[in-house]
User: Fold these one by one.
Assistant:
Number 1:
Amino acid sequence: MGQHRRTTGAARQCELAGVNRSTVYAPQMATKPDEQELTLLALIDAEYTRHPFYGSRKIKIYLRGLGHKINRKRVQRLMGTMGLAGMAPGPNTSRLHPRHKVYPYLLRGVNIIRPNQV
């Protein structure tokens, strides 16, 4: 029928290449941020200090207003490296709207003993 491909495991590949297996799993050293990235990090930190509720969208708008060409994903990455996150409020689904009528539950205390009773 069809041919089966056999994949060679990482240990066997390292053995064939003559490389220690630990080098394959070794964490990569982080590169030093360049001058532009350091400037962006400082600007993001300053704006987040002034407005801690700003998320990546507002920070992106702020940086673009200063003349930086930056997209939201980069702002998200930079905010993540500094451990910053916007404090957006979540939906408050427990609070009742004052104009919505609350209907009573009519089956409370009713014993249902046969099909199609309710």
Number 2:
Amino acid sequence: MPTKREQPRLPFGTLVERGVIPPGAVLTDKLRRWQATVAVDGTITCGRARGSIHGVGAAVQEAPSCNGWVFWHVEQAGRLRVLDEFRQEMLSN
């Protein structure tokens, strides 16, 4: 079984292009401290921060880096789902 690093890469923009995470969707962290809006090009915006899920996640936390796949969540059917769940579903199909 391949490690996470060995698995095929899937850009966040692919989820947006395929409508899995639509433009205008709101992402939030697990504790709902920050909210970011998804743009058509697959970038996200949170306040003055704009860029990748990783870059914006790092910016809002004032951290040197961030794994946006596990930091950002989408609310669906009343529960938060981490972005990595959506990525794993696409990779398994």
Number 3:
Amino acid sequence: MGPRAYRSKLRGSGPIVALVPPGALGALSLLLLRRHTSLTRGLAGFLTAVLAAPGLLVAGAPLRADNSAYLVAVVGSAALWMLVGAISARRATRLPAASWRDYWREYLWLAVGVWLGVVVALLAVNLVFGRALF
């Protein structure tokens, strides 16, 4: 397997591998929100849920009771993370000898941008609704 084949393998599996970190955050969120009795666990569970699936904010996650919108939001978020993975793979394979380390470096930069957007959106909603979320 030469560098060209390795690069094409990285580009092909990059979008699928991109679902691993949000999946882990989603699993952590489910564990935190299951039978939680404290404000800290509830807040941490909510934060990890919206970091794993940013589309939940678009669907009105804490304010809406309709569960079908959540499914659409999670599927949309998975598409977003796969797009982030594809872009990361493309950027990492610009180098002739690309590796998964290069992929994760590019992925982290893009993921931090998505996560900062989620935090800013949460802060904006918190200000608009007058501390309704926190």
